[in-house]
Write a structure and sequence with these properties.
The protein is of the alpha+beta class and 309 residues long. The protein is 47% helix and 18% strand.
Length: 309
C-alpha cells in the first residue's frame, strides 16, 4: 500500500504559500477600503487553515509509515469487493450528514460577518461582503463534493484494514489515535445485527474551528471468525482487563493461611507451615467428631470443640 499522505502535505504547504503571496499583494497593491483588507483577511484565514491541514497530514503520513512497517500490529483484515462497497456507501452517508451540519455552522458565521460589513461599513463593506459570499459559495461546493470524492477514492482503494496501538488504516485512509487537531475518544465492539455485520467502532473528535469539535466514527467490519480478536482489541484499548485463561492456577493451597502452595515446595512461602505439596507431611487433618478440616497446628476443632490428640 502506498502512502499518499505525503502528497497531501506538499499540496497543503503549496496552497499556504500561495495565500501568503495574496496577503502581500493585497496589503501592498490594493486599497484597503476597496477590498484589499477583505482579500488580506480572507487569505490570512486560508493560509492558516492550509498550514494547519499540512500539519494534520504530516501526522497522518508519519502514522501511516509506522503502521505499514508492521510495528505493534494487532490485526490485518482483507475484505471482498462487495463488502467493501457496502462499507463505503455507509461511510459516504455519514460523511455527507456531518458536512451538512458543519456547513450550517460555518455558513452562519459568514452570513453574520456579511451583515455586519454591510450595515456598519457602508459602501466599502459591500465589497467585503461580496468576497465573504464567494467564500461561502466555495465552502458549500466543497462540502457537497468532498463526500463524493471520498466515496470514489474508497472504492478504488485497497480493501483492507490495519489496526495497531498508534492508529488504524481503513480503505486506504489513516486515522492516528493522537495527532494535531484530532484524537481517539473510544473503541467499542458491536455485535452483528440483521442489517450490519459485527463492527469494531473507533470514535474520534476533531477540531475543525476555533471552538468547533466534530465527532466522527470509523466502523471497521469484523471478518467471520475474528469476532473474539475484535472484542479483545476493544477491551484492551478501552482499559478493560481480562483474565488470562492460559495462566496456570495452583492446585494446592496452604491449610494454615490459604496462600497458593506451588507444587514441589514442602513449606508455605507466606507462613512457613508445611503444605500438602510435601507428600506425607502437612496433609489435611479431619476432625473425627464433626468432619471439619483442622489446621495442622490446631489444638481444638473450631466447629465442635473436640480436643486434638
Amino acid at each position: 500500500m502506498e502512502n499518499h499522505q505525503w502528497k497531501r502535505v506538499y499540496i497543503s504547504l503549496i496552497l499556504s504559500g500561495i495565500f501568503f503571496i495574496l496577503i502581500v499583494y493585497a496589503m501592498t497593491g490594493m486599497d484597503c477600503m476597496s477590498g484589499g483588507c477583505a482579500v488580506a483577511f480572507t487569505s490570512l484565514f486560508l493560509m492558516i487553515s492550509s498550514f494547519a491541514v499540512a500539519l494534520l497530514f504530516l501526522t497522518y503520513a508519519w502514522t501511516m509509515d509506522e503502521i505499514l512497517s508492521g510495528k505493534s500490529l494487532l490485526a490485518h483484515w482483507v475484505y471482498p469487493a462487495g463488502e467493501a462497497q457496502i462499507s463505503a456507501e455507509r461511510e459516504f452517508k455519514d460523511y455527507r450528514e456531518t458536512n451538512r451540519g458543519l456547513l450550517f455552522v460555518v455558513g452562519g458565521f459568514l452570513v453574520i460577518a456579511m451583515i455586519i460589513m454591510v450595515v456598519f461599513a457602508g459602501e466599502d463593506g459591500i465589497a467585503t461582503a461580496a468576497i465573504l459570499f464567494g467564500v461561502l459559495i466555495i465552502v458549500a461546493i466543497v462540502s457537497v463534493i468532498a463526500p463524493r470524492l471520498e466515496y470514489k477514492r474508497a472504492l478504488k482503494a485497497s480493501h483492507e484494514a490495519y489496526i495497531t496501538d498508534n492508529g488504524i488504516i481503513y480503505e486506504g485512509s489513516v486515522y492516528p489515535f493522537r495527532s494535531f487537531l484530532m484524537r481517539m475518544d473510544g473503541v467499542s465492539y458491536e455485535k452483528e445485527t440483521a442489517k450490519l455485520p459485527p463492527l469494531l467502532v473507533f470514535s474520534f473528535i476533531q477540531l475543525v474551528g476555533l471552538y468547533i469539535l466534530r465527532p466522527f466514527a470509523i466502523s471497521i467490519p469484523v471478518p467471520p471468525g475474528e469476532e473474539e480478536k475484535a472484542r479483545r482489541i476493544a477491551n484492551r484499548m478501552s482499559g478493560v482487563v481480562e483474565e488470562d485463561e492460559t495462566t496456570p492456577v495452583p492446585s494446592n493451597v496452604c491449610n494454615s493461611c490459604g496462600a497458593p502452595a506451588l507444587p514441589g515446595n514442602p513449606y508455605c512461602e507466606s507462613c512457613g507451615v508445611k503444605t500438602t505439596s510435601d507428600p506425607g507431611a502437612g496433609s489435611p487433618v479431619i476432625c473425627p467428631v464433626c468432619g471439619s478440616n483442622l489446621k495442622p497446628d490446631a489444638k481444638f476443632c473450631g466447629s465442635c470443640g473436640y480436643k486434638k490428640q
